[in-house]
Amino acid sequence: MPIRRRHASRTNLEGFFRRVTIGVSLVFFLASILVVGMVWSEQKTEWNEATRSRTYNHPVVYVMRLGVVGFPAGSTDQQIKEELDRSATAAIEKAVTRSAVLRSLRFANPDYAPLTDVELASRLMNSDPPAWSALGDIVIGDGAKVIFLPTTPPSLFHLAPGGDISHLYVASSPGQSSMLYTRGQAMKAVALSERRALVVYEDLVTFYDSPRARPAPFSLLRALALVALGSVALPWSVFFFGRFIARSFATPARPDNSVTRGHVCSKCQSRAVVRVERGDVFERMLLKFRGKLPYRCLDCDHRFLDRPISRRPVAANDLTGGR
After folding, report:
1. Which DSSP helix (H) or strand (E) runs through 162?
2. Based on the domain organization, do 265 and 242 belong to the same domain?
């Protein structure tokens, strides 16, 4: 009867922890849904704000490999693209030549090293304009102002401010047409891994501190699927692991009158010995490490430890000492 009561107690305890695990899973699932929903909503709001369509009174376009071009107020995207398609290719070629000339001059004459590109070009143009015509300004359209990229890229902490940049432009190349992005369109293109948008952003971040690409909001359905999986897997894995540990150190149920044969009481030398329950978890771990089990003598009630042996049927006369 005591062993039956212990077995019932273990069953009730396991049922209790099973119900607790179900409750923890539900709480974890609901809390995770709430957190995921809040984070996704915040990211979605920021993404919509960053990529929404805007009207720019004074468009400022970053032209890859050339610099920044400021267009007159009221210029539309179509007008900007048409003007850049006409002038950008030649302007980029001249900018590359200008940069190579300035770089070679600085290398040949160390006195030019402290001067900026604009100061060096102005000094040379004032001294002999025809000879240094390659360093002259570049004109794109009517009223557009071009700011060249510096010959030497700035360090990370000295990037030029790019808060006014409203568009990004990539000139045409063999097999590819030109592309004009607004800030929002460029971010969406980068999120879709469009190669040309990635290239123009990589070129821009070398010289300007903004704009910067940002990832699109994470997939809500995928996040909810991971939450559902985690809310089930985590609590139940803890439950089954704990049950495995508990059962590993639990003593198998056996009748009270199950007398072992071969064990001898160390106190009275009686063979009327039964196996008893192990104590707390610490004792169970210690006994498992030592490879011994607890036994009790039915004659003198002495409890002792011994190594387990195979159980065999016990004859009636063994309990009475052969009488």
Report:
1. none
2. no
